[in-house]
Structure formats: structure tokens, C-alpha cells
């Protein structure tokens, strides 16, 4: 297990925070069992066994029988690094509790549906590189201007503007801090493009945000 | 935040592992969106902010506006403490990777349905006491003989026989170790009675397994 010294104790990811994805899913939301879109942020954890670092090789996932899986996907997000204990803070004050910013990549199995908590596909060993560094809060003026770019083997495959997030960074920190108390060093991945990017064995993936940094990882199994 | 020194890095809970509950849910399973029962164990995490200890007062949960919630429930489970790195082990060898046994209680908001990952209700601060001690593996001969008992204010409210688990401890360790590598000190709560026990402000809750121990906690808010 590779130690990621940037993350302390918790990496929370926000799913379904891409406005365009939510629009595309409207018909699905109307069906059973919910009959309406989620009213709260949909969260999932990337547990400690998933944490990884810039430059590391990402293990190609295996199925239950030890055979290589057919396909993997990657998403990337701005990572909010909590700077101080954060409990039930208002949207107005939420950004005061940010210690800094980083990048989170999330390698996973493709999801078959959006309903069931996909623990199996989301907690692959070493599937969540975080880094390469933590950028001071004061260096980023307007988060809405940021774009998360994913390149595979040098070619751009995804661009996600933070302005297209259904809930803003400040809103998410406020809401999550009402659900659980956050501690310094905990990281929130605030939003991924709705369409994850397919990757193959041996691919080199660069996830980047201008002014925050670039996470570069290579897929294993080649 | 109260440090629980028994748990290292991860507390994984297995939901829907009570045979009687699964039987009762058969009609629900046939409906959209799944149309069949879960084919894999349904897992959820209790993150670090939830970890708590024997004897601690459990905070009465508040809603988003800071008002006390109307109701809370508790479940209890045998806790498997992992003894060594556990990756893709067979059912036959799984128990060799157990370091010891303990108790896990899980205080939460009542669940409205079983579909959505109920992060909000499951990750209340301090809602997962673990302990009071770790019992050596060799002291428990037959796990199927164990019963998890929950008493509220001295009155027995729930009894769950481990023989009624859909998947055994060895099966769960094997399956989970194929999903993620487990590390020493990580804890798996293997199964809860399908019906959680309602609790009120000021109640004293004892969760116990004979030969493993008793976790005693009092609800706050009284």
C-alpha cells in the first residue's frame, strides 16, 4: 500500500454533480424507486486502500476469479483539503474552512446503473491518486473559472468546467459539514464530469486543473 | 472527536445479511430497478468521525436546521478485527486472517428505503462504538453459536443468531478481500438483525455477545 501523506483519514467524493449529467438523467429519475432526482448530494467514500500518489502505476483491476476486467474508466475532480474542524458551517463561511486545493483522480469499473452503492467498483486498491501538491487557498481567485481536463496518452478526452457543477464548493462544504464533522486534512472531491473516460492497459492519464496541478498516472497490466 | 484505538483506518459494515430480513424483502427485490435480490454483499462504511468507545454518550442527531431528529435506531454486530494483510483469500483460509473479535454498535437515523446509500443517516459523529476489547480468535470455537443481544434500559429488544446470517464470517472475509485489500486493525461488522432497535433520548443501550463482551452507551439529548 502506498502512503498518501496529503490525505488524512477521509476522502469523500460527490457523485452526480454535473448539471449536464443531471439533465440527461431526468427520465431515469422519474422511474421507480425514487420518482424524483436526489434532493441531497450523493456521496461515496474512497477508503484508505484506494489512496495513491502522482506518478504511481494504477493496477489493472481483476475480477473475482483473478482475470483482468474488460474495461476501466477514470474521472477527475478538484480536491478540497479541509484546513480546520468543520461542523455545521454556513455557505457564506464555508470557504474559510478550506486549507487548500488539490486534484483527485478516481479510477473505477464502469457503472452499470446509478442506483446501487457501487462499493465493488469504487474501492479498488490504489485507484484514487491525490496530489501532486496542496495549493494554498489564496492562490485561486474564482473557482468557477476552473476546468478539469483529462488527457489520455496526450489527447484531451474530457473537459469539465466547475461552473457546470450543480452545487458549488461552498454549498457542498456546508451541506457535508451538517452530515458529519470534517477534520483537517480530509479531502472532498467536489464533482466529476458525468461521462467517465474509458482507459486501457498501459495508458498514461493526465488529470489537470490550471493553477492547481497535474496528476499523471499510468495504467498497469500492459 | 473520541479516538478509538481499536480500529485502524477502516470500519466496513455488511448490510442485508439477516436471512429473515432477506426473506421479508423478497417482494421488494422483484421490483424496479433491480428485479432481483443483491448478488453481492451490500457494504457501507462508518468513517472515522463515527468511531466511538464503550461508555461514551451517543450524541442525539440533529437535522439540517439544528433541531433534534424525531427518532434514532441502533443495530449491533460481531466485529472481525483483521490480523494481517488480507487480499483475495479463499473461504477455507479466511479465518486465518482474523486477529480477533469485538463488538460494533451502529446508531443511525431510521432508513426510509433500502435502495439509496444512506450516507446522511449512517455517518453521524460518534455513532459507531467499537469494543470494549479485542478477544483472541482462539477463544471462540464456533461462531455460529453466537448471538448478538441488544438491551435498552435493561430490557432485551433484539436477539440475532449468527447462524441466521446469509453469508458466514469466512465467506464475507473472502469476498471483501477480493474487492479491496484489508489491513491489520481494520474491522468488519459482519451482520445486523434486519430490524434495528428504536432508541430514545437518555436510553442506556447494551450490545453484547457472550464471550466477546458488552458495549454500553447512553443516548444524549435527555
From TrEMBL, chains A, B:
It comes from the Bacteria. GO terms for molecular function: 5-carboxymethyl-2-hydroxymuconate delta-isomerase activity; 5-oxopent-3-ene-1,2,5-tricarboxylate decarboxylase activity; metal ion binding. The keyword Metal-binding applies. Gene3D superfamilies: Fumarylacetoacetase-like, C-terminal domain. Residues 10-219 form the Fumarylacetoacetase-like C-terminal domain. SUPFAM superfamilies: FAH. The keyword Metal-binding applies. It holds the Pfam family FAA_hydrolase. Keywords: Metal-binding. NCBIfam families: HpaG-N-term. PANTHER family: 4-HYDROXYPHENYLACETATE CATABOLISM PROTEIN (PTHR11820:SF114), ACYLPYRUVASE (PTHR11820). This is 5-carboxymethyl-2-oxo-hex-3-ene-1,7-dioate decarboxylase. It comes from Nitrincola tibetensis.
